[in-house]
């Protein structure tokens, strides 16, 4: 199931506006991008999650066996919610989205 209904970029691709399938809006700002190192980081500026100071990082590394290891991690401060539940929610989201990315890449082979 896709969580994002639409996505648009502004500021030369540095700002991303996402509309979720439930009508929520997420705004992210690209912080760093390194094509050679195959990673980028972004800040969550607006969204439904009860967090502040969110910085996410995605990377893709050679797994030394002919494949690629994709990782997605983040740091943030939880406000007004149980930290363990918020952390678990992000972990589930990341795992599902990475599994979806894997399926898309494998379908291209």
Care to describe what's here?
By secondary structure, the protein is an alpha+beta fold. It has a single domain, classed as Alpha-D-Glucose-1,6-Bisphosphate, Chain A, domain 4 (2-Layer Sandwich), CATH 3.30.530.20. The chain is 23% helix and 50% strand. It has 1 helix and 6 strands, in the order E-E-E-E-E-E-H. It has a 6-stranded antiparallel beta sheet with strand order 1-2-3-4-5-6, covered by helices on one side. Strand 2 and strand 3 form a beta hairpin. The longest helix has 25 residues. The two termini are 22 Å apart. The relative contact order is 0.12. The model has no long low-confidence stretch (mean pLDDT 95).
Give the key terms.
109 residues; alpha+beta; Alpha-D-Glucose-1,6-Bisphosphate, Chain A, domain 4; 6-stranded antiparallel sheet; 1 helix; 6 strands; globular
The CATH superfamily title: START domain
- Enumerate the spans where pLDDT stays under 50 for 5 or more consecutive residues: none
State the domain count: 1
Biggest beta sheet summary: 6 strands, antiparallel
SSE order, one letter for each helix or strand: EEEEEEH
- In CATH, the architecture is 2-Layer Sandwich
What is the level 1 CATH name? Alpha Beta
Average residue pLDDT: 95
Principal-axis shape equals globular
* Secondary structure: helix percent: 10-25%
- What's the total count of β strands? 6
């Amino acid at each position: 199931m896709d969580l994002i209904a639409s996505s648009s970029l502004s500021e030369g691709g540095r700002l991303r506006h996402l509309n979720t399938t439930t009508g929520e809006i997420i705004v992210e700002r690209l912080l760093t991008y390194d094509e050679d190192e195959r990673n980028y980081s972004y800040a969550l500026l607006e969204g439904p999650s009860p967090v502040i100071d969110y910085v996410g990082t995605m990377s893709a590394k050679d797994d030394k066996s002919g494949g690629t290891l994709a990782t997605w991690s983040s740091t943030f401060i939880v406000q007004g919610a149980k930290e363990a539940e918020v952390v678990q929610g992000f972990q589930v989201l990341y795992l599902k989205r990475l599994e979806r990315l894997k399926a898309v890449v494998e379908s291209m082979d």
